[in-house]
Amino acid sequence: MRPRVFCGIAAAVALFATACTSGGDGGGDTAGGGVSASAGAGGAFPVKVADCAGKETTVKQAPQRIVTSDAAALEMLLQLGAGARVVGTGFPPGKGSLSAAVAEQGAKVPALGDTLIPKEKLLGSGADLYVDTFGPMPGMGAAGAGPSEEELKAVGIQHVLLLSTACATGPKAAQGPRTDLAAVEEDVRRLGAVTGTAARAEELVGAMEKQITEVKNATAGVPEAQRPGYFLFDFDAGTKQPMAVCGKQVANAVITLAGARNVFADCDADFRPVSWEDVVAKNPDWIQLAVRNRGGEEENRKAFDEAEAFLKGFPATQGLKAVQEGHLLRIGSEVTTIAGTRNADTVRQIAAALHPTLVKNGQ
To answer: Which position has the higher pLDDT, 95 or 111?
Structure first.
């Protein structure tokens, strides 16, 4: 049976706490990571893409055997129409994790690892492209390092990172909190260029931007001081010490675009352990019960119930404004904290809950 975790940084946090912050050689949201000018429209090759540090990789032709580090990268490729070329993934998607349009195809992709793909299996996969959501994960020891660039090159595998996740922190990261989804959109465009599906990438990005623009326009008149404080409660990361999403995490952009204020936006990281005293001091207006997909509607409901029951029963949190007023949003972790086109849907979902007279969900 496949694991229930979806993938990526947020899922790994539940297992490894702070071990899964982005690699130390990371770059900023867009710095050094854009598709080169040589990447022509309509699937033209060669295509040049850069890593977090700005080192370029030239993809001379559309890859035919792709491996993804996790289901986040897998879902992007499925949405781009390149799913038939994916021959394996790590952190395979559990039931209900992928969007309905690509779930059936995604379920057929072989799992090369229940979590991270073992180094030997990745190098022996016969892939010509490895799409990596994580980058280095030193907190996981040797397994987190993965194959070196030299090892990948020796077996003919080119390495492309999702910069919005892998390069969020580090010495070359962009300054200040992330307040838009430009880096996620750039990742979609990068994969579109690399796989020869650039036209489809523009369609996906256009749909994201339409959603976001509608929400931003609808909430433009809400003064900053009146935007509600918002705390993403990562229930699966543990309850003894809460894990905050900070300013450099994708979720900070989602929360900001939805017309709210992430109460931990000022911490200069993607994730950081905090204390319940810290949460109480912030006293958020809204709390997201960010549980990870359990594989079914009933299982998810039970997980949300457990997260809500904890907040209502725990002495430190039962008096919080959001708990007292029932401002507890049941929105999954993956679509909020992991880069993907569905981040835009989450922006609207949060905005519709917080600003119901201004934004309607699903419109």
So the answer is: 111
